Amino acid sequence: MAAAEQIEASPAAPGYTIGVAQRLPYPVRNVLRRWRGTLGMMVGVGIALSVAMTMLAVSQGSLDYYTLDYQRSGANLYVATEGGTIIPVLPSDRPGTIERARGTLAQVRSWPEVTAAVGVMNWSMEREPEGRRRADAPAELVAVVGVDGDPTQIANMAVVTEGRWLRRPNELVVGQRLSRDGGMPLGATVRLAGQSFTVVGVAKLRGLGAGVSSDGVAYMDYGAFQQRAGIGDVLNTIMVQSTDPARTQRRLDELGGLDAYTPAALVRQAEQVNQASVGIRWVLVGLTLAIAALFVSNMLGRSVAERRLEFATLRAIGLPRRTILFTVGAEAVLISLVAGLLGIGLSLVLGVLLNATVGAAYGLESIYSTDANLFLAVFGLALFLGLASGLVPARQATRVDPVEVLREA
Amino acid sequence: MLELRHVWRTYVDGGNEVVALRDVSLRIDDGEFVAIVGPSGSGKSTLLQIIGLLDRPTSGETLLDGRPVDALSDAERTRLRLLALGFVFQRFHLLPGLSAVENVVLPMEAAGVPLEERYARAAALLAAVGLGHRLDFPPSRLSGGQRQRVAIARALGNNPRLILADEPTGELHSDDTAVVIALFRRIQREGHTVVVVTHDPEVARTADRQLEIRDGRVVRDAVGAAAGAAERDDGR
What we know:
heterodimer, A: 409 residues, alpha+beta, 2 domains, 12 helices, 10 strands, B: 236 residues, alpha/beta, Rossmann fold, six-stranded mixed sheet, four-stranded antiparallel sheet, 8 helices, 39% helix
């Protein structure tokens, strides 16, 4: 009777204040209370996702390397000789040379819809050191681009970081990397192929194409270039800015012997060239995600095995299998969501580091290119795989036999 | 209310057929307090699992309110366990990450009791078992007796007609045992049917009726004063 009296003397039911978390359904509450236990999985999968996302962003970056300059240069037509290759597929692919180039260029410039046209030609010239040269010293070759026309007339084509663009035949503009690594600072005198040039600017031209490292070349007036290189009246490419590109393209076709490409056409070509490597990267991404999914499935499976008593109790007191399925499934979803966000964050940090180190070392504007659609695709895929990987452990949890487990307990 | 007709339960263990229950027939009426006693391995827990719709007989029939329940689907039997039955286990089996009140709320949440109502009811039940001041305590901060009282409150959440307890005092000290017995008595007075599997003579003496199981058979079914007398005889 003493015991009964003890219970009778218990306090009356207080007015209970329901917390915010307590208003959530049990599967969600359960996930929130167990978040510490899933932290390792979140970090592990997050790292895997960041690797996958970074691979895709670098893949996009390499495509941009081929194409972004064409889109940004301000020119809306790129002209090469018939059969020339602006986007190289094979190592031997070259843009070729446009013969009687200055006449062609003058004709293009005369068309009323053409606002500017710049011709470029690549060559290598020997740099002569100051003072006497040792007999056995190797010749130092510098990649030089002869430029016919004023690229500063086309917005975004010339990216000048120091000094100015060429005005006279004895001037030289050098790419940033060449200036830094080749000892050609602003104001320096450089002897190329028997003539002295003064460096008046550090800059690069957009639209030269993937075969030319625009940061690692010297730019020279075309007249001086022709003379120093000892070549005829030839150009590799003519970059045209036109108010009516379709009309200009028709006129170029009528001229004959030339191929003209829009930036969009060049991007399509580059995408085709990169198709194989993009495909391989997607396969790697798929494998990474599959491994992450197996990892989640395995860890959740172990967690379910450790919590058999909990699930058996829930089954015994009448909670439906559905609730247990959602309880484990919610963990898989939470892991995927947090891992996805973590993956994006880590990948962005990696991207900044890659651009600042590898990109800068190779003179690339961007080696890592973020693409919201790609990230969304990977995030969605991760969520799907998270759900899929949670399915097996969740079904295991619903199949726990309360009789067997409670007897063992 | 609950009836078993010629129930057999056999299972295979290591290639051998083990008979856990042999032709058990019994009837438990509303409001009874029944103790199932017997030595270890006699079939007490198997009987409780069949009564509690956790297990199905190999042959024979289980009826709840005259309705056969063995052929019901798993989902239907789960629903019946949720609404018509309340379980109390020897080792309490509270969910460790949930507070006392959240443990009690859980079956009510599954039954669709509205949020405010289920928390109010859970708080009232915990107060009724003397734990009104421990609502937000996790099981790890409660004594064994207190945990078992939370488990009893959980079993009462959906106001089931039948409370099933498997060795509910097996892990408790004598003081806590007395509290739990008093609680079962009170639960019975409030109109619930209580079925307890026990080794504890004190618990068995408290019951109105004792069913003794040996080798899977009901060998004694003593009601009223006879139950207590039989227990006393056994204790001599």
